[in-house]
Amino acid sequence: MSTITTDKTYRIMRENCQAMIIDVQEKLTPHIYRNKKILSKILVLIQGLQALDVPIMLNEQYKKGLGETLPEIMEVLDTSKAKTIEKVTFSACDNDETWNHLAQQNRNAVLLFGVETHVCVMQTALDLLDNGMLPVIIADATGSRNAYDRRQAIRRMRRAGAVITTTEAILFELCRSSKDPAFKTISNLIK
Length: 191
Description:
Blueprint: E1 17-22, H1 35-51, E2 56-61, H2 63-66, H3 71-76, E3 83-87, H4 96-105, E4 109-115, H5 117-130, E5 134-143, H6 147-160, E6 163-165, H7 167-175, H8 183-190
Parallel strand pairs: 1-2, 1-4, 2-3, 4-5, 5-6
Helix pairs in contact: 1-8, 5-6
């Protein structure tokens, strides 16, 4: 098989990606459509990304109003490795501390998941695109209060150039092989 070299890469590579959890907080998440299913995907995703050593950042929107990140997330998230940042902007990229942390990772692809898809997730994705980065939306791990808002946001982000994928697809893409030491962990999480 011959190989053609292009400037564009379509595969998401573990060494070139980082992850951002957006606003999965106590006073907001219970109002999200299908929140239990979304939370279960987020928990699998966090554990799988940690097994793959992908850096994770946790963003929290105005904690005084929306509360803490859900305890289920804090139980599985290795907070000694994950950076936690509070924000008041809808786009996480509008927060200097978040933007500086993203840039310092020197990883172009940013896996985005959390709530709400049509507000904070979408605005963050659009800002990442505007700044030459690649947002990768983990669609089954994002949610909005209204399913229609979520669908429209996914559609808009895809048209803008974001990659849309799922929890299982991204974990196996980053793993790449059943020989990877993280494969067994990921396989057990997906079951």
